[in-house]
Write a structure and sequence with these properties.
Layout lengths: L1 E2 L15 E2 L8 H60 L4 H37 L2 H7 L4 H43 L1 H4 L6 E2 L5 E8 L5 E8 L7 E13 L2 E15 L4 E13 L1 H4 L14 H6 L2 H7 L3 H13 L2 H14 L10 H25 L11 H17 L4 H9 L1
Antiparallel strand pairs: 1-2, 3-4, 4-5, 5-6, 6-7, 7-8
Helix pairs in contact: 1-2, 1-4, 2-4, 2-10, 4-10, 10-11, 10-12, 11-12
Length: 421
């Protein structure tokens, strides 16, 4: 009554070639039921591995595609502003490419959870529309069993995000800040050029006749009118730009300072052999740059050394909450995938599509993100409340489990509706 074939099935999801002949009069219902149970038992182990591999491969392909598209969109948006800023400062295309590469890890970190959600929704919607999901459910797969490959996919994305969050993003942020400081310290290229009048800030005019290859400025004119009551004009035969621990200084030689007192209408003239002019307020104190929190490693944040707190100007609670945020945030990618999958399992077939389930999934993710923001604000005020940083992940997992439980009981709300009527 049973035909056994050695060939493998080319369909999905069955893994063997076991198939019944057409039932005849001697093929009773009891025998047919026993045969179906036998097929289910024989093919269960093979189908488990095949189904997981199949769904994960579909998710990974679409995840890579959507990640590439979204990264390009975000990167181009950032690169346009970066290009205008660097080219306006006289930097080369090599510097632009370097800066663009250093911004990529942070862009990828933002994009990957979104890509995981879109890939999951798109894949499950396609499987449902092509009845592949229905076939798998007919073999006895529960909603929680169907969610296993989605969770494995989400964990893979979370591990990659952890690598980005703990290693690549802080390292790239640190290198980017150092390169920005190096370029900013190249003040001659940014603020000083010979042969024309420059206005670095309002009320300040600078003219340099010539800048020698050594960096020495010849015949300098500086008019400081920021104090309208007593504007000051400096002239010098030579000048040098110095970078000290207190910030950048302009050292002028063989010059004269003319101070006009508008109240008394008198002009005071002072000659000097050398004079130091503080220009850190004009171009920033890049020599004593404070490191940002996103430049520090996760271990440094957990330690929260007093010296690091003083350098960054942040509190211990902020450090600890930021460290635990780095640990928890990657797992939100798994939550986004599970929430999208769980919502699409709700409801039956509809010719209007699954747009209602997708809207529900997006709304739930917005609530989870709002909870994440609230938890971050609270944890940054009290260092003992760092556990709140894991609340959005736990809430998302619990919500996904609830949705999967509801999806296995489609008649639950229908019975309640009938009881009320």
């Amino acid at each position: 009554m049973v035909e056994v074939r050695d060939e493998r099935s080319h369909g999905f999801p069955f893994a063997s070639g076991l198939a019944p002949k057409t039932p005849d009069s001697s093929f009773t219902r009891i025998e047919f039921a026993i045969f179906c149970g036998l097929i289910k038992a024989l093919t269960k182990g093979a189908n488990v591995a095949r189904f997981d591999r199949y769904l994960i491969s579909q998710l990974m392909v679409l995840f890579g595609f959507f990640s590439l598209v979204l990264v390009m969109v975000y990167w181009v948006n950032k690169a346009v502003g970066l290009f205008d800023q660097l080219i306006a400062d006289g930097q080369s295309a090599t510097v632009f490419l370097e800066f663009s590469a250093l911004t990529l890890p942070s862009v990828i970190q933002i994009v990957l959870p979104i890509s995981a959600f879109i890939a999951t929704v798109y894949t499950i919607n396609r499987l449902a529309s092509e009845s592949e999901l229905v076939v798998v459910q007919a073999t006895g797969f529960s909603s929680f069993r169907l969610a296993r490959p989605v969770m494995m996919f989400g964990l893979g994305v979370a591990l990659f995000l952890s690598l980005l969050t703990h290693v690549l993003v802080p390292s790239a942020a640190r290198q980017l800040a150092e390169r920005e400081a190096d370029i900013a310290q190249n003040i001659s290229a940014k603020f000083f050029s010979d042969g024309r009048f420059l206005h670095p800030t309002e009320g300040l005019t600078l003219y340099i006749r010539e800048i020698e290859p050594s960096g020495e400025m010849v015949d300098l004119f500086l008019s400081d009118r920021r104090n309208t009551a007593s504007p000051t004009t400096y002239t010098a035969r030579r000048a040098l730009l110095l970078r000290s621990a207190e910030g950048p200084r302009l050292l002028m030689y063989d010059g004269m300072a003319q101070i006009l007192n508008r109240e008394t209408n008198t002009l005071t003239t002072t000659s000097f052999s050398d004079f130091t002019y503080d220009i850190s307020a004009l171009i920033g104190d890049f020599g004593n740059r404070r490191p940002r929190i996103d430049e520090l490693t996760t271990l440094d944040l957990l330690r929260a050394d007093p010296s690091a707190l003083q350098q960054t100007g942040s509190s211990r609670a902020w450090f600890i909450s930021a460290a635990h945020e780095r640990i928890a945030q990657p797992f939100l990618a798994m939550v986004t995938a599970l929430v999208g999958f769980s919502c699409l399992l709700l409801g039956g077939f509809s010719r209007f599509g699954v747009w209602r389930q997708i809207i529900l999934a997006v709304a739930l993710l917005v609530v989870i993100k709002a909870l994440d923001n609230v938890a971050s604000d609270i944890a940054r005020k009290d260092e003992t409340l760092w556990i709140l940083m894991y609340l959005p992940v736990l809430a998302g997992l619990a919500l996904s489990a609830l949705l999967l439980w509801i999806s296995e009981r489609p008649s639950l709300f229908k019975r309640r509706a009938r009881a009320q009527t």
